[in-house]
Amino acid sequence: MADSRTQLPRPPSTRREAELALDRLVCDNRFTISVFFPLNGAVLLVASAMTWLPEPLAFNAFLILFGTLVMRSPLIVGVLPLVTRRVAFGVAALTGYAYAIEYTGITTGWPYGWFEYGIDLGPTVAGVPIGLPVFFIPLVMNAYLLCLLLLGDRARDTLVRLPVVIAMVLAMDVVLDPGAVALGFWEYYRLADGAIIFYGVPLSNYAGWVVSATIAVATLDWAFDREALLERLDATGFMLDDLVSFVILWGGINAWFGNWIPVAVAALFGIGLLRTERFDSRLFRLPRRLPWRS
């Protein structure tokens, strides 16, 4: 008589098995992660800013962090097999740098200009949200990966690769900061007389981002093996889904508030994704080369 008991799946017993299980989980849920979550996130954030949501749903820190982690998951899972001691050290150093530069920013006004947080983004240490690296480092990594694909062989030249990635990180903040200010995430103050303001964001912020982006891009460039990144990008297909989420989430938020230049820049990122064949029908199905197949 056959055993009719339900056979529970065996949990992964090795790092490789865990990585393959995570690959399958992300692949099976690409639409939910990269379209459903950012669309709902945009609606909830706008509704919070417009005071349409009651407490505790309005700007709920847990929901913000949870949603961000879900949208980051394709990038995190994609990079996970490439994490060596060198990568771990680089990411740890960049994490420490992110906390340090943010603390410097809120206490001295350098390098971004004086600003303060307007909503609760979760637990903080010395006024800096603990989740800051989850917000910052993936932005730089997404820009880096997109540039590797768009530049092709030209990405081998450091003098081409690094300036292009830095410029792309700055362009991502052209999308992010106006949307965040419109929502009330943070606010700039002590603005100098005659300061040029771009959708509520002083130009000093972008000068600061040049500094931050340069250090972050150089660190990631040192830490990761570019050839391994390209191979992983080709094998998975989902590593840039976090950038799809970025376009949908922040493009939608900026459109609601009428920030049309940031919307146009977000659209350029969408075009870049189309050119890499990452932002197409493959979002709704598994890639041809499943990473868990031999």
UniProtKB/TrEMBL annotation:
- Name the lineage: Archaea, Methanobacteriati, Methanobacteriota, Stenosarchaea group, Halobacteria
Segments traversing the membrane: 31-53, 59-80, 87-110, 130-152, 164-186, 206-224
Source organism of the structure: Haloferax mediterranei (strain ATCC 33500 / DSM 1411 / JCM 8866 / NBRC 14739 / NCIMB 2177 / R-4)
Write the protein's name. Carotene biosynthesis associated membrane protein
- What keywords are annotated for this sequence in UniProt? Membrane, Transmembrane, Transmembrane helix
Record flagged with keyword Transmembrane helix: yes
Q: Which InterPro entries match?
A: BABR_hydratase, CruF, CruF-like
The source's superkingdom equals: Archaea
Reply yes or no: does the keyword Transmembrane helix apply. yes
